[in-house]
Write a structure and sequence with these properties.
single chain, alpha+beta, 7-stranded antiparallel sheet
Length: about 150
């Protein structure tokens, strides 16, 4: 009888150790998934913004640094806009001539466009923070406006 109790106790300890290892594996998977999605969303948004600003004819940044308007090569007026009215916010690409908008990125907790000057913008520093679950990722980049050099 004592041998049976010892065997049950050892089996219980082994199952508890297995449960702890499984729980840690699931937590690690969840954390890595959140990191991937946050980084991927921020990277995709920046990869949309960078080439458009690089070849823009004219760029203007709002005084609060949450909006960046520009004219493309076909003189079409566009705007990137960080909307903070919801938590978390969203990054939009607005077609100002046709009054339409597209969501570029959701779960944005911070976004800024910092120009090198208030007139004749030649470069812009862009920073975006995206949150997925409990993970936040911040990416920053700089864009030189080639038409204004």
């Amino acid at each position: 009888m004592a041998e049976l109790l010892i065997a049950l106790m050892i089996t219980g300890m082994m199952l508890a150790a297995l449960a702890v290892a499984f729980s840690a594996s699931v937590k690690n998977f969840t954390d890595n998934r959140e990191i991937f999605f946050a980084a991927n969303k921020a990277r995709q948004a920046l990869m949309q913004i960078i080439p458009n600003l690089r070849i823009a004819k004219a760029v203007s940044i709002s005084s609060d640094h949450y909006e960046c308007a520009f004219y493309d090569a076909a003189n079409h007026n566009w705007q990137y806009r960080y909307d903070r009215s919801t938590n978390p916010g969203k990054l939009y690409m607005d077609d100002l001539q046709n009054s339409t908008f597209h969501i570029l990125c959701d779960n944005v907790t911070n976004m800024s466009f910092i120009p090198d000057s208030t007139t004749n913008v030649k470069s812009v520093i862009i920073s975006i923070t995206v949150t997925e679950g409990s993970t936040s990722k911040t990416f920053s980049t700089a864009v030189v406006i080639r038409k204004n050099l």
